[in-house]
Design a protein that fits this description.
With 246 residues, the chain is of the alpha/beta class. The protein contains seven helices and eight strands; from the N terminus they run βββαβααβαβαβαβα. It is globular. Keywords: Hydrolase.
């Protein structure tokens, strides 16, 4: 059985770095809207299963498919195949500091379209790993009222300064700070022992202060709501969306 059975495939087109760009989007559910941005290596079965928990909780969920395979179980072979293509793609920022990923504009457009369709106070956004910081970039737009940052891991650590970088331009970081000061909370989740996250949650704490809800998980792991799924993490996400989107 295809894990995406029951989901409706659509498409969304918006500007990315000056070019009209179209990506598939999978949709399911009713109620307040949430955009879940998948991790490396693609729209895996684990991401879909997590999204189904959000649907069951009473949300309309969109799964944009930005790269890699869709519907397959996670595999390191897929990571090896997809990673080189991501590294040359103009849609994503991989190494540069103080830069917002170019695909952020596309995601903001998708969130606005979803909000116009389902209404409510705004939409939720969740990024993870490679896309962890994307929810912050979406928060720049007033449409996103419930950003969740799971194990943010870009720009890639390895060169000085990158372990603390939030994948945001100075202007977008200031917009995030202003929105947080106006009452928009941010949820961030990581395994405390995960080296890929670096000190980004410390940076986020400094940026938004008391608006940041920080969840540090015990044990060894990386993918907090998918491959090394923590019920503590999932419950924190469900509670956050219920509070912010009701």
């Amino acid at each position: 059985m295809d894990v995406l059975d029951g989901w409706t495939r659509t498409e969304h087109t918006a500007d990315v770095a000056g070019r009209a760009t179209t990506h598939p989007v999978w949709r399911r559910g009713t109620g307040p809207g949430i955009v879940v941005v998948h991790e490396m290596p693609g729209l895996t079965a684990g991401v879909v299963r997590f999204a189904e928990e959000l649907v069951e909780a009473g949300h309309t969920v969109l799964l944009p498919h930005l790269f890699g395979p869709a519907g397959r179980e996670f595999s390191n072979l897929d990571v090896a195949r997809v990673f080189p293509r991501i590294c040359v793609s103009r849609e994503f920022t991989k190494l540069a500091r103080g830069v917002t990923t170019p695909v952020a504009g596309w995601l903001r457009s998708l969130a606005r379209e979803l909000h116009a369709d389902v209404g409510g106070p705004g939409v939720g956004a969740l990024g993870m790993c490679f896309t962890g910081g994307f929810a912050l970039a979406m928060m720049v737009d007033d449409t996103t009222v419930a950003p969740v940052v799971c194990q943010p891991s870009t720009p890639f650590i390895g060169l000085p300064g990158r372990a603390a970088d939030l994948n945001l331009s100075p202007a977008d970081a200031e917009a995030v700070r202003r929105r947080a000061a106006d009452g928009c909370k941010v949820l961030g989740i990581r395994y405390a022992s995960d080296p890929l996250v670096g000190t980004r949650l410390d940076t986020l704490t400094s940026l938004v202060g008391d608006a940041f809800i920080r969840v540090e998980l015990d044990g060894r792991g990386h993918s907090t709501v998918t491959e090394q799924r923590s019920q503590v993490a999932v419950d924190a996400v469900l509670d956050f969306f219920a509070e912010r989107l009701s």
